[in-house]
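ARCHIVE RECORD
Type: protein–small molecule complex
Small molecule: glutamic acid
Source of inputs: curated submission
Record status: active
Notes field left blank by submitter.
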Amino acid sequence: METKSFNAFKMAQQQFDHAADILELDEATRDFLRNPMREFHFNISITMDDGSKKIFRGFRSMHNDSRGPAKGGIRFHPQETIDTVRALSMWMTWKTSVADIPLGGGKGGVICDPHNLSLREQEQICRGWVRQIYKNVGPFTDIPAPDVMTNPQHMLWMLDEYETISGQKQPGFITGKPVGMGGSLGRTEATGYGVIITVREALKKLKLKTKDTTMSLQGFGNVSQYAIELYTQMGGKVICVSCWDQKDQKSYSFKKESGIELSELQGITDQFGGIDKEKAKDLGYEVLDGNVWLEQDVDILVPAALENQITQENANKISSRVKIISEGANGPTTPDADKVIKDKGIFMIPDFLANAGGVICSYFEQVQCNMNYFWSKDEVLGKLDQKMTFAFNAVTQFADKHDLYMRDAAYIIAVERVSKACKSRGWV
Ligand code: GLU
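STRUCTURE (tokenized, with ligand):
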């Protein structure tokens, strides 16, 4: 989200400029990659349940499609801005590139708060979004998916609108659909599981055993819940998780030294990942200020909420025990905070590598839709593990060889692939 001092797009450009300097990219390539190739802004007009008309602002940014159709989620958020969408579309370009899947980078958004919208109103927004952008998206152009506060049901409404307009079944138009309706088994789990696959590989590299480690996470949405599931299955202990409280408009941390119980918390959580404070207290959780998730004496931190969460102001509060940060969210760490983290010697697994599991599985979903043949969950998750591990190893080997911070190594690999594709197409 944008604040007076924070702009995600400026941050994404700053990160890109740093990689471009290291790669000594020519001016045309820099100019081409510093901005989205194209973007759309539009009004979505809805009849609300009370009969009144309301206008919602929608966006889609296609940052780059040199390596394949643009790909990326659609966010529903009251503080959405075009600059945030631009940044996120740019990060998608690097994500599909570092994961080496034949897709580009896109992102969409609608300024709205699903907490305050009925399902019928949400359906109208989904259908309205597709009606406005129909001509410019599609299975071979730009493929949407779920993101913050959007889910498989939203994807299905969007698909239905797209197919109604086109008069054809086109399941490859969108990913993250419900299983049985063109969705892939494992897609819901993919981002959170992927985050933990990178943690598993990092622990191996640092010669640590998962069962001797602890974790604290920010956010209790889809990514965080599946990250907790896999990490605890592997023997790790999560002691703290924070989430947004819609009623109080602030976040709280939920802590249990003996280890949080995922299913117990899921039982008292709403569909947006908001945990009921009173019920959590009854279950023996300490309910603390939202920011303390970052200050915990743990081995692993997983920011899995929104951008701009680990900043110059709070990075110094990270405990000296922390050895790994794996970024489940997109853009959670600012460049200033990166410097502090680097100085602390923490092993950083950057967002577009750590959370690439979602889009990797989206790619599998498209492949399965094209074949009209769906794989077992084990097959999907096995292929996900292979892709994530391969990408992680490529980045760590490059970082080790050139003595680079992990984020820089990931950027160099990703930007180089995209700039080569743009060059060989004759665009720059
Ligand atoms: N929204 C997810 C992301 O940021 C998934 C994108 C996709 O599957 O296309 O990576």
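CURATOR ANNOTATION: The first helix runs from residue 8 to 23.
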